[in-house]
Structures are given as C-alpha cells and as structure tokens.
Amino acid sequence: MDIDWIMQGTLEKEISQKKAIMEEKAVAIKANTGSSATSNGTRTASNTIASTTYGGTSTATNSGSQVTSSGSSTTSNTETSMTSGGTSATSNTGSSLTSGGTSTPVNTGSSATSGGTSTASNSGSRLTAGGASTTSNTGSSLTSGGPSTTSNTGSSLTSGGTSTPVNTGSSATSGGTSTASNSGSRLTAGGASTTSNTGSSLTSGGPSTTSNTGSSLTSGGTSTPVNTGSSATSGGTSTASNSGSRLTAGGASTTSNTGSSLTSGGPSTTSNTGSSLTSGGTSTPVNTGSSATSGGTSTAFNTGSSMTSGETSTPANIGSSMTSSETSITSSTGSSTTSSGTTTASNTGSSATAGGSGTPLTIGIITTSNSISTSAGTTVNEGPSGSLKPWEIFLISLVSVIVAVGFFVGLYFCVRNSLSLRNVFDTAVYPLHGPNLGPGPGGNHTVHHRSRWSPNGFWRRPVSSVAMELRESHNGL
C-alpha cells in the first residue's frame, strides 16, 4: 500500500511538472467531440472551442457526427484561433447521415495570425436518402507576414432529394503566401443538385493561388455547379483556376465558371474549363475568364467542350484581356459534337492593349451528324487611340524608304534594258539607209517611212520622205 501511495504521488508530481512546462510554453490543446444518435426526434450538437496563444502553438480539433432517422439533425462547430508569432491550426469536421429527414451541418473555422502560419481546414460530408441536405463550410484566414492556407471540402450524395453544398474560402495576406482551395462534388439521382464554390484571395507583395473545383453527376434531375475564383494581388503573382465538369442523363445541366484576376506589376493567369456530357437533355456550359493587369502579363485560357446526344448543346466561351504597357494573350476554344440535334458554338476573343501587343486567338470546331450546325467566331482587336509610338513611326518610315528605293532601282534597270535594246536595233537597221544606197541618185527613200529612234534619247520624231528630199536637195545645192 505504501508503494502504491508513493507511485501515485510521483505520478502526480510528474503530471503537475508537465502541466507547468506546457503553461510556460503557452501551448493550448483542446479537443471537443460531440456524437449523437437519435430516432424519430431532434438532436442538436454544438461544440465551441476558443484558443488564444502568444508565441506558442495552438491546436483545436472539433468533431461532430450524427446519425438520424426520420428526424432533423443540426451540427454546429465553431472554432476561433488567434496566435501571434506562432502556428495556428484549425480543423473542423462535420458529417451527417440522414434517412427521410433534414440534415444541416455547419462548420466554421477562422484563424488570424501575425508573423506565423495559419491553416484552416473545413470538411462537411453528408449522405441523405429522400430528404434535403445542406452543407455550409466557411474557412477564413487573415495573416500578416506569413503563409495562409484555407481548404474547404463539401461532398454530397443524395437520392430523390435536394443537395446543396456551399463552400467558401477567403484568405487575405500581407507580404506572405495565400492559398485557397475549394472543392464541391455531388452525386444525385432523381433530384436537384446545386454546388457553389467561392474562393477569394487578396494578397499584397506575395503570391496568391485560388483553386475551385465543382463536379456534378446527375441522373434524371437538374445539376447546377457554380464556381467562382477571384484573386487581387499587388506586386505578386495571381493564379485562379476554375474547373466545372458535369455528366447528366435525361436532365438539364448548367455549368458556370468565372475566374477574374486583377494584378498590378505582376503576372496573372486565369484558366477556366467547363465540360459537359449530356444524353437526352440540355447542356449549357458558360466559361468566362477576365484579366486586367497593369505593367505585367495577362493570360486567359477558356475551354468549353460539349457533347450531346439527341438534344441541344450550346457552348459559349468568352475570353477578355486588358493590359497596359505589356503583353496580352487570349485563347478561346469551343468544340461541340452532336448527334441528331442542334449545336451552336460561339467563340469570342477580344484584346485591348495600350502600348503593348495583343494577340487574340479564336478557334471554333463543330462536328454534327444529321443536325443543324451554326458556328460564329468573332475576333476583335482594338488598338490604342491617339498618336503613334516612336517605334511605329520608325517602322513606317523604314518601309516607305525601302519601297521608294526599290521602285527607283527597278525603274533604272527597266530604262537601261530598253536603251540597250534600242542601240542594237539602231545599229542593225539605220546604217543600211544612206543617200547613195538604192537605185537613182537620191537612193531609196521609201524605207524612210519607218520611224527612226535615236540612241541618245527615248525617241526622235520620225523623218518624213518630204523632209528627206528637201534635206538632200539642200545638200546638193
């Protein structure tokens, strides 16, 4: 018994020492777990963790899982973490499985760090059968002088109901790196599925990367994925990538992808891809990539491909690029393949540059079988208004001088060749016609009806026979 008391006292001392060390290092670790299982009732689980550390590490983990049958389930996880000069990691996970009811998981992770690393990860997954499922994931990160990473994932699988996942990741950094990644995937059968992904990133003096992916697979219903990635950077690199793909059978599919990038003094790249494969329904992919840069390079790539069988397919691709004193490249490609339906492909690439070069490239390819095909490709290139640049004036002057010199050189050689031919002609013809040649004292004067050409000039007026006779009679006198 004494040995047991001694061992217990030793363990208590060690635990108290470790606690003191952890408190000195300002390390706070908290974990809350709430699980609930209800049948024919309502269950609400709420987990809240707040952590504030200074010069240390803060880790907060919240997990809420629930399974309900014929009832309502609401899971709310909220976690805030503020660190100064350290590392903050926030992880929120909410999973919900409902049958014949409504499931609403809400996950919020916010992190604010100064001179450190902030990572916010939010995951919401749900599986519903014959009910409505709504997932909302919000991850916001504000960092100053450090890297910030926000990852939001919402996946939804519904059967005979409505599924709406909403994912929002926003990141604002100053002098660091900001990465926002949003992924929303859904699989529905006989219902409506709507995915909305928004990733916004605002950086100053650092690189910003926004990636949004929304994929939808529906059977006999409506699928609408909406992906938006916006990035604004100052003196850094901005990359926005939006991808929306959908596969529908016997329903309507609409994909809208928007990637906008505004950079000042750095390169901006916007890539938007929307692909649609439908069977016996309507497919409308719309892809828009806009880029505005000042003193940097802007590249917008828009690709919309649509394949339909027995229905209508309309791909529309718009790529616009506006640059100031730099290079702008816009490439828009729309391809459509239909079988016994109508396809309309419209591709528009416009480029407006001031003091730089703009290259719009527009390609429209359509292959149809037993259907009507309409293709419209429009390329608009608007140059700068006002006076010409010095290099443009120099180029125009150089071309003008080259053309003038070439013209005069050609004229010189033409005249020279004509004169040499006339010399040969005069030497061969005119010495045969003298006053002593031919019958009679005056010679044969009939040949002088031919015009005489002088080798000393372009031509001489022809001398008539009357003039020749007067000249010869004068010489005879």
Q: Provide the β-strand percentage band.
A: over 45%
Query: Would you tell me the overall average pLDDT?
Result: 53
Query: What distance lies between the first and last C-alpha atoms, to the nearest angstrom?
Result: 172 Å
Secondary structure: number of strands: 25
Uncertain stretches: 25-46, 48-53, 197-203, 227-233, 242-246, 257-263, 272-278, 286-293, 300-308, 315-385, 433-463
Tally of discrete structural domains:
3
Roughly how much helix do the residues carry, as a percent range?
A: 10-25%
Radius of gyration, Cα only, in angstroms? 42 Å
Shape: elongated
Domain Mucin catalytic TM and cytoplasmic tail: 383-461
Biased composition (Low complexity): 48-354
Protein name: Mucin-21
InterPro entries: Mucin_dom (IPR028199), Tandem-repeating_mucin (IPR008519)
Can you summarize this structure?
This protein is an alpha/beta fold and 477 residues long.
Written overview of the protein:
It is a single chain. The chain is of the alpha/beta class and 477 residues long. It is built from three helices and 25 strands. The chain has three domains: 1-96 and 104-111, no CATH class; 240-386, no CATH class; 390-476. The protein has helices at residues 2-24, 390-429, 465-476, and strands at 28-39, 42-54, 57-69, 72-84, 87-99, 102-114, 117-129, 132-144, 148-159, 162-174, 178-189, 192-204, 208-219, 222-234, 238-249, 252-264, 268-279, 282-294, 298-309, 312-313, 316-324, 327-339, 342-354, 357-369, 372-382. The longest helix has 40 residues, at 390-429. It is elongated. The N and C termini lie far apart (172 Å).
